[in-house]
């Protein structure tokens, strides 16, 4: 463990993903006011020996990923987790999209999901970051992480919204925008507002990737209690984001009442 109290946790179960995950974890840790990095591997049987090869503090556990991930803030001081994603990964791997979402479903911190084999530009990534704001009740943590990206990672932040025609939906969206404006003014955060076109069952997050093409998207995962007909027919939006042809890195947050965020 490093001396710092807060860490970015590189969650890796396959050595082939270690370089990618550590590159992003190290990049984010440096820009988030010099946080520490811990490489975490969890295995059901033997502890991985390859975690010793990367020159960073590491933890190799026997057990299950979901328990370890849920305990990241309390056990490791984790304020951000990073993991790789690959649609071709076997279902037994953490890098498989369905497996990753299941194992991270109780994660109490934000988690950055990056395509395996990619590398962040150390000087410019992410040049552009987007988050969506619509008529629904939004998570304050999502807006806070948008501010972190703008303030610490120096990214250009875009807030994307559907083009509402319904007056009631537009009124609720305006209330959300008023809250965002008040928060960002107090933090000195600048952003660009954008409108995206969506269908009746369309996801604003997917539309944002399609139309705005940011280098990073901040998104909330679907609360199981709030799933609608579109989710059952099309799948939850985060699954569509993970399979998006742009392979855009995603900063995901779960719908929880006990999320851990950085201190300003």
Task: Please describe what this structure looks like.
It is built from nine helices and ten strands. It has helices spanning 15-31, 65-70, 72-76, 97-103, 140-151, 167-187, 204-212, 229-234, 237-242; strands at 7-11, 36-43, 58-62, 78-85, 110-115, 128-132, 156-162, 192-196, 216-220, 250-253. It is globular, with a radius of gyration of 18 Å. The model is unreliable at 229-233 (pLDDT under 50).
Distinctive features:
ten-stranded mixed β-sheet, 264 residues, alpha/beta, 9 helices, 22% strand, globular, single chain
Give me the count of strands.
10
Query: Could you give a short account of the major beta sheet?
Result: 10 strands, mixed
- Oligomer state of the chains in this structure: single chain
What count of helical segments does DSSP give?
9
Low-confidence stretches: 229-233
Q: Helices and strands: which structural class?
A: alpha/beta
N-C termini distance = 23 Å
Which word captures the global form?
globular
State the helicity in percent bands: 25-40%
Major sheet strand order? 3-2-1-4-5-10-9-6-7-8
- Mean of the pLDDT scores? 90
Radius of gyration: 18 Å
Share of β-strand residues: 15-25%
SSE arrangement, N to C? EHEEHHEHEEHEHEHEHHE
């Amino acid at each position: 463990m490093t001396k710092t109290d807060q860490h970015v946790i590189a969650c890796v179960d396959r050595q082939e993903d270690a370089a990618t995950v550590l590159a992003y974890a190290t990049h984010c840790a440096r820009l988030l006011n010099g946080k520490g990095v811990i490489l975490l591997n969890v295995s059901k049987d033997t502890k991985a020996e390859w975690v010793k090869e990367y020159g960073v503090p590491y933890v190799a556990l026997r057990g299950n990923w979901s328990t370890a991930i849920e305990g990241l803030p309390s056990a490791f001081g984790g304020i951000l987790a990073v993991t790789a994603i690959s649609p071709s990964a076997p279902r037994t791997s953490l890098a498989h999209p369905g497996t990753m979402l299941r194992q991270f479903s109780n994660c109490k911190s934000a988690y950055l999901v990056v395509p395996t084999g990619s590398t962040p530009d150390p000087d410019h990534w992410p040049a552009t970051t987007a988050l969506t704001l619509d008529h629904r009740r939004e998570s304050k943590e999502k807006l806070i992480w948008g501010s972190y990206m703008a303030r610490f990672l120096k990214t250009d932040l875009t807030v994307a919204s559907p083009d509402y025609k319904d007056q009631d939906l537009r009124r609720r969206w305006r209330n959300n925008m008023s809250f965002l404006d008040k928060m960002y003014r107090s933090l000195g955060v600048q952003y660009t507002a954008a409108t995206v076109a969506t269908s009746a069952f369309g996801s604003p997050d997917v539309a944002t990737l399609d139309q705005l093409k940011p280098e990073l998207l901040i998104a909330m995962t679907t609360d199981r209690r709030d799933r609608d007909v579109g989710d059952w027919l099309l799948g939850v939006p985060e699954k569509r984001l993970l399979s998006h042809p742009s392979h855009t890195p995603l900063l995901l947050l779960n719908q929880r009442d006990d999320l851990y965020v950085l201190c300003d």
